[in-house]
């Protein structure tokens, strides 16, 4: 009985069937179908993945990056994911070249940035901007629930001069409201009003 309740609870309260907190739904809300993405720290090609729904179900184009080759076999055995994945260090990667090679615009629609440890997520974000990319929306992992440094504020200070603001704040995993682990940023040109995740998630 406990197992059934646990599965039902998970089914009812998981925002997206694929991503951890609805990052893919956030991207679709902003841009709809046929968008562009870069997914840093993509992990499994389907489960917990922020770009599967975008690419496979909504015709988005882009590429993924992951340094952990333990997932490589899962990508090789997946027939749905057609877009490129690079098995490299995201903090040293040449994003400008990859954007050109994959025929993407510099101002991609959506960037997902989530690697370990946390300071490397910020380094990867900085490298993206150093290489000239200007994503319109960014899902940035902060791991606020366990980090001593407030990386949401660090990223906010870095992104503001480029014309970004916090779009969705205090993003948590499913109903674990104390496990705040991400902040979602948007470019000011999107005219997106800042909202708490607990309120945003009610849409779904």
List the helices and strands and how they pair.
Elements: H1 2-13, H2 23-31, E1 36-40, H3 52-58, E2 61-65, H4 72-76, E3 84-86, H5 95-101, E4 110-113, H6 118-130, E5 137-141, H7 151-159, E6 164-173, E7 176-187, E8 195-196, H8 197-200
Parallel strand pairs: 1-2, 1-4, 2-3, 4-5, 6-8
Antiparallel strand pairs: 5-7, 6-7
Helix pairs in contact: 2-3, 6-7
If you had to describe this structure to a student in words, what would you say it looks like?
The chain is of the alpha/beta class and 204 residues long. 32% of the residues lie in helices and 23% in strands. The protein contains 8 helices and 8 strands; from the N terminus they run H-H-E-H-E-H-E-H-E-H-E-H-E-E-E-H. Strand 1, helix 3 and strand 2 form a beta-alpha-beta unit. Helix 2 (23-31) crosses helix 3 (52-58). The chain starts with a helix and ends with a helix. Residues 1-13 have low confidence and may be disordered.
Mean pLDDT: 92
Q: Residue share in helices?
A: 25-40%
Rg of Cα set: 16 Å
In angstroms, what separates the terminal alpha carbons?
Answer: 27 Å
The SSE order reads: HHEHEHEHEHEHEEEH
Low-confidence stretches: 1-13
Largest sheet: 8 strands, mixed
Principal-axes shape call: globular
Q: What's the total count of β strands?
A: 8
Across the major sheet, the strand order is 3-2-1-4-5-7-6-8
As for the number of domains, it is 1
CATH superfamily: Vaccinia Virus protein VP39
Summary tags:
Rossmann fold, alpha/beta, globular, 8-stranded mixed beta sheet, disordered N terminus, 8 helices, about 200 residues
